[in-house]
Amino acid sequence: MQAVGVVVEYNPFHNGHAYHVQQAKKLTKADVVIAVMSGQFLQRGEPALVDKWARTKMALASGVDIVIELPYVFSTAHAKQFAYGAISLLQAAGCQTFTFGSEDGRLEPFLDSFVLIQQNKELYDAFIKEFMTTGISYPKALQEAYTALQQQFPGTYIDLAKPNNILGFHYIEAAHLLKNKIQPATITRIGAGYHDAINEQSQIASATGIRQALFQEKVLQNINQFVPSPTYQLLEEWQQVHSTFASWHTFWPLLRFAILRHTPEQLSAFPDVSEGIEYALIKHAKNALSFNDFMDKIKSKRYTWTRLQRILTHIYTGITKQQLHAHTEPSYIRLLGMTENGQRYLSMYKKHMTLPLISRVAATQNDMLSLDIRATTMYQQGLSFHTMNDDYNTPPIRR
Amino acid sequence: MQAVGVVVEYNPFHNGHAYHVQQAKKLTKADVVIAVMSGQFLQRGEPALVDKWARTKMALASGVDIVIELPYVFSTAHAKQFAYGAISLLQAAGCQTFTFGSEDGRLEPFLDSFVLIQQNKELYDAFIKEFMTTGISYPKALQEAYTALQQQFPGTYIDLAKPNNILGFHYIEAAHLLKNKIQPATITRIGAGYHDAINEQSQIASATGIRQALFQEKVLQNINQFVPSPTYQLLEEWQQVHSTFASWHTFWPLLRFAILRHTPEQLSAFPDVSEGIEYALIKHAKNALSFNDFMDKIKSKRYTWTRLQRILTHIYTGITKQQLHAHTEPSYIRLLGMTENGQRYLSMYKKHMTLPLISRVAATQNDMLSLDIRATTMYQQGLSFHTMNDDYNTPPIRR
């Protein structure tokens, strides 16, 4: 059996995702699709709309055969580490290929961009250094250095100003670091851009657009046309149980409590908290009227929205620099769910996997896994769960 | 002008308190009554029903002239440290005497009990050691040693099994440690025992009884006869603004969040967390259905209700062993409020006080004070305050 991997958040699973899964199978002639999916907290530093089990159900109902969890350490990290964790896990799970979305379905611009930087590392670094002296931010300097490199060596490259392209670039890089035992492929993304609002004429909307519609209009019906019916049903069930979707808006009273419970010195133990941002966090947490008001008060050129949200995620979950940075390599494959087809694959290939497959967390003692469990516990607090859907009592979803 | 001091929590201020204040003034012929009052968290390890400003208003409306704050470090400590902090502050504020409630108004049994232990320290310690070997708890062993000492040296002593007597004992001890520059006196407590439920025939009820009535029956009218009318009005106003009184029941979602956000190792940084209680806290915080359910699950012979509540107070406020134990001597007199009469006293004697008088916290940098400010911030989180009654923006109450 052949397996193709995809790297996903499914926040929530929509028609564009269903299309990608279908095409991934077709393009690679794979028998099973394995999705490595972020757990409760996502790469932009946000809680997922609904928990990882609900999102696993959505995926299994719409074409994915196996869902494994991208550990918290990677799911909340910057693109490079996020991609490395994800591709490592897909390789460990036995995928021969992985696919990712692109604007035009051509892999070459990604490969060429990677080679461009790879082969001109010294020049690239010199450019970055030079641009940094002009006082611009590090990400901005990376961008400018990349442009300068392209002028030096003309060719067809990807635009690294686009978030999806940055991820694609780092997937290629990860495959390279993993000695290309797992092969990349790309599939044209259809219908909607990464952050586009929903469009009533289409069946495809970005996850960002769908979330906006859910939070701003609060009418689930509005997104019906953009998601497979199992997603719709699962969102409806979730809303009935929790009366809200998870967001920083929902979690704000607890986040504020977490911030104010620390001294500035204690806050600086959390990842990426430095340069005095700890004082601003405390000062504005006291007076902010809402999460958005808080963010408006603390954001700056240096501290972008995403960077701040990642910091807040770690403060919220209580996961320190020391705990987060103790781990750089995935050490397990956490199974969140599988179809019958997925189960067949696992039965056949489990023993060949290069990392242990974990179905029951209670049987495992692993520091990296303990952070995933913590993330779930804290996610649940935000929704005032009591005893449901705990990492210990939720077995892998079967479909 | 002569000042008499009282050590209080006023949770809430009731008729028994009003009687004590009146008698204290009469007995000592003092011109002003100074109350050293616990801030937002109390000696039994609980948040106060209403905040320190509301309680200050109650006191000033019913006979107290000056209210100063007993810092968090002392207000949440065991009896010995609580009493030492309180009596030190009353002395520093210029009180020649202090009064406390007793069953029969006789001071001698307190003094004799103190001298009994003081003069037979070695024998007392030997008794304690002996009783500890039988496997009983430390407080129990203290109790037994005290009984044994009384048998050896017959006399009229106080019963140290009663919480109020324990406090009285430690007030005497504190005065002794402070070289008896401040003199103790005692006033007969009338009407109700420390923990007695309310009695419809009486005008006196214990604060415990009043709180029970407020939480269990939720009808403010039921306590009307037991409190001065300003107390009643202030409780009514509070209820209108916050719709609830502060309690662990109200604070439970935040307390649970605080516990679960830590590893067992991190929890052991909080005062008195040791011997594995950190594991029990995390385990039961996950599954408990309410604060009371949680307490039932974690309490034991070794960890009594009060001891646990004090631990939980420190976890809730985020105040660590290191922060709490850095301070053993009061270093400021924090003014919470005063009447005109109180203000006259302060104007005359302020410069003779042996500690700085603080009216505005913003002007002061003091580590012990920063814990009081933190306690207020965290107290407010439990009631979902936004920007009201902060330590920085609330000047002393004037009446």
TrEMBL record, chains A, B:
Positions contributing to ATP binding: 7-20, 101, 164, 189-190
GO cellular component, one term: cytoplasm
EC number: 6.3.4.-
Swiss-Prot/TrEMBL catalytic activity: cytidine(34) in elongator tRNA(Met) + acetate + ATP = N(4)-acetylcytidine(34) in elongator tRNA(Met) + AMP + diphosphate
Keyword Transmembrane attributed: no
Subcellular location, principal: cytoplasm
Stated family: Belongs to the TmcAL family.
HAMAP family membership: TmcAL
Function: Catalyzes the formation of N(4)-acetylcytidine (ac(4)C) at the wobble position of elongator tRNA(Met), using acetate and ATP as substrates. First activates an acetate ion to form acetyladenylate (Ac-AMP) and then transfers the acetyl group to tRNA to form ac(4)C34.
Protein name: tRNA(Met) cytidine acetate ligase
Top-level taxonomy: Bacteria, Bacillati, Bacillota, Bacilli, Bacillales
Gene: tmcAL
